[in-house]
Every structure is written in C-alpha cells, then in structure tokens.
Amino acid sequence: MSLAKLTALLSLCAVLILLPPSRTSPARAQERKAAAPVTPCDLNAYVVDQDPNGLNVRSGPGSTFKVVGNLPSQGVEGVAVHITGGSGEWVRIDRATEQGSDVDRTLFSGEGWVYGPRLGTDGVGGIEGGTPIYQAPSKKSRVVARMLAGAEGASVRGCKGKWMYLEHKKVKGWAQGDALCYNSLTNCN
User: Fold this and answer.
1) Rounded CA gap, 159 and 174, in Å?
2) With b meaning 16 or more CB within 10 Å and e meaning fewer, what string describes 20-45?
3) DSSP three-state, residue 178
4) How many C-beta neighbours within 10 Å does residue 186 have?
5) What distances in angstroms separate CA 159 from CA 41, 60, 117, 136, one per listed residue?
6) What is the rounded CA–CA span in Å between residue 178 and residue 162?
7) CB 107 within 8 A of CB 54
C-alpha cells in the first residue's frame, strides 16, 4: 500500500473516531435514564398487574434495569406498595406488603422501581361527588374528573410529594394521597 493511501486511510479512521455516535447505545441510554431526576413522593398504591409471573421490581426506572425483586399476583389477595419517588411513569418503592392475610407479610423491602401503570388506587368514601382529580398538583387547580369509592380505579402515572398523577377513565390528572384508597380489598369508607 502506498504511503498516500495509508495516510488517507489513517485520516479517515481519525475522523470516524472523533465523530459523535449517530445513535445512543443501550448502555448509554440506561445511564441517561439513571441520571433522570427523581421526584420525591410519599404515597401508597396497590398492584393491579395480573401477570402470573408477578410484577418485577427493578434496580432503576426502566425495563432494562436489573430485576431485584418480584411481587406475586398469585396466592395473595392483594399487594400494597409504599412509593418514595418517581421518574417518568416509573415509581420508586421501599416496601411491599400482602393485603388480606391474617399475618402481615413483607414481600419486598429496600429500594426498587416498578412501572406505575401496573399499580392502582381508588377513590375514598365520604367525599361528596368522589375524590377530585385536579389538572395540576394543587387544590387551586381545576377539577378535571372525580373518582367514586369502589368504582373503576385509577392507574398510577407518576407522583410529586403527597400528590399522585393518575389516569382514571382515560382522564389524566392529580389527586391528593389522603383522598385515595390504596387497599385493593376495600373501598376505604
């Protein structure tokens, strides 16, 4: 190979090395997701996922993160989770407990992430017209829907402090945690 061709080939390689990648690698995408901001929350919900294999608890907010636990959907009457943070539609939990058994049983303890739409909540009784769902996480915000106790529940879409972002009958909005029922076995009247 001539010196001119070798020099041209080396120059081309140098240019290709210095160019930014055109697509993000899966590992780089996971790093960016991990770096996404986490919104602190203090809320409760229950598992609605009926997959016979259970609901995976992951090490980070995304399906590419390692599975660190599993919440059963078979052999339990219900599973409640405590939500401590959110990133997009993924929520961070620190514990999961069985509902409906005679003995309290912890199913998961530690830090893990679950996909929010696999969790649910319901309205509570005693609120005239049902639990209000607001346009924004503020009581001063416009009410966009109401959720009756024991009616079709809502799926979790995110959280912020003591407010849950949820979807109820195709309407998305915010509800205060203390106006929600997180026990799948009762209507919290």
Assistant:
1) 8
2) eeeeeeeeeebeebeeeebbebebbb
3) helix
4) 14
5) 6, 16, 12, 11
6) 8
7) no
**Phi, psi (degrees; rounded to nearest 5) at 45:** -155, 180
pLDDT of residue 10: 46
Amino acid at 86: G
Fill in the amino acid letter for 125: G
* pTM for the predicted model, two decimal places: 0.80
Is the Cβ–Cβ distance between 161 and 43 less than 8 Å? no
Is the pLDDT score of 22 beyond 50?
Answer: no
